[in-house]
Amino acid sequence: MESALKPFRVLAYIVGTMLLVLCTAIVLRYGFDVPEPSKIVSPIHGFLYMLYLVAVMNLGMKARWNWGYMLGIMLAGTVPLLSFYVERRVTTRVREAIAA
Question: Which residue ranges does UniProt annotate as crossing the membrane (predicted)?
């Protein structure tokens, strides 16, 4: 499980940060009529989010989580700032499972 935790943690932070950048780009696009940043950031975030989903699946399968729990963690990458909170909770849960 420890080997799957590190990629999950890294991708949770990257996806969370990119989601905040994407939100800024969307505000620029629709609020200030500056579409260029969102055209660049959107596909990058989408690609990184797909990697995040793979990392969640990898960790979830190794930790033997149920599908509902994994789905909740996957959806955390779609809400700004939530991925940071969920990353801490998941890390704590996995480390407690490893110690047990």
Answer: 12-32, 44-61, 67-86
Tokens 């505000």 — which residue? 27
Three-state SS letters, the chain:
CHHHHHHHHHHHHHHHHHHHHHHHHHHHHHHHCCCHHHHHHHHHHHHHHHHHHHHHHHHHHHHCCCHHHHHHHHHHHHCCCHHHHHHHHHHHHHHHHHHC
Instruction: Answer yes or no: are the C-beta atoms of 9 and 76 closer than 8 Å.
Output: no
pLDDT tens digits, 91-100: 999 999 999 8
- Residue 15, both tokens: 């996806």
- Report d(CA 62, CA 48) in Å as an integer: 21
Model-wide pTM > 0.90: yes
Between the two ends of the chain, the Cα-to-Cα distance in Å is 13
